[in-house]
Design a protein that fits this description.
This protein is α+β, with helices and mostly antiparallel strands. The protein contains five helices and five strands, in the order H-H-E-E-H-E-E-H-H-E. The chain has a domain of 103 residues: 2-Layer Sandwich (Alpha-Beta Plaits). Strands 1-3-4-2-5 form a five-stranded antiparallel sheet, with helices on one face. The two termini are 26 Å apart. InterPro entries: Dimeric_a/b-barrel (IPR011008).
């Protein structure tokens, strides 16, 4: 990954001030994920992305069997249920290919899976559709074998 042309192009765009700032940080965690799937609601127009509200979920599965079950669940059930949530526009999945951590981040866990879901409204998590999508029997089985973390972000500026 570090040898790809797009990665090299990103490196050359880093300003000297950014390099100095990074060097002063007590801990740094750099992760490279490869895109594995995108699910887009049929009514989503490209110009509506990115959405204002972003749900970021990371998962670390405890066994290879649990990992297989999680991937099937996402593909066969979860994304379909998420697409029924009012305001859900798109979900993308990624798998970790490389990580590099130093300083205070050196011993922190790094999640193998990353999902990014985009919503037009902030109240998506309180809808009956969201509650259903996050409370099925299959989801409960998957989560018993996972370390999961989730955060919601609000987009302030579009460039």
């Amino acid at each position: 990954m570090k040898t790809s042309e797009s990665y090299k192009a990103l490196q050359t765009r880093v300003l000297e001030d950014e390099k100095e700032g990074l060097a002063k940080l007590e801990g740094v965690s750099k992760r490279t994920y490869v895109h594995s799937a995108t699910f887009t609601h049929p009514t989503t127009e490209p110009e509506s992305l990115p959405c204002k509200y972003i749900l970021v979920v990371t998962l670390e599965m405890k066994t290879a069997e649990a990992e297989e079950d999680m991937n099937r669940w996402y593909d066969e059930e979860h994304m379909d249920l998420l697409s029924k949530i009012p305001g859900w526009k798109q979900g993308r999945r990624y798998k970790l290919v490389e990580s590099n951590q130093r300083g205070t981040m050196a011993d922190k866990p790094v999640s193998q899976y990353l999902a990014i879901h985009e919503f037009t409204n902030s109240g998506f998590a309180s809808t009956p559709e969201f509650k259903h999508a996050t409370s099925t029997e299959w989801r409960e089985r998957v989560m018993k074998n996972a370390d999961r973390h989730a955060r919601v972000f609000e987009l302030k500026n579009k460039f």
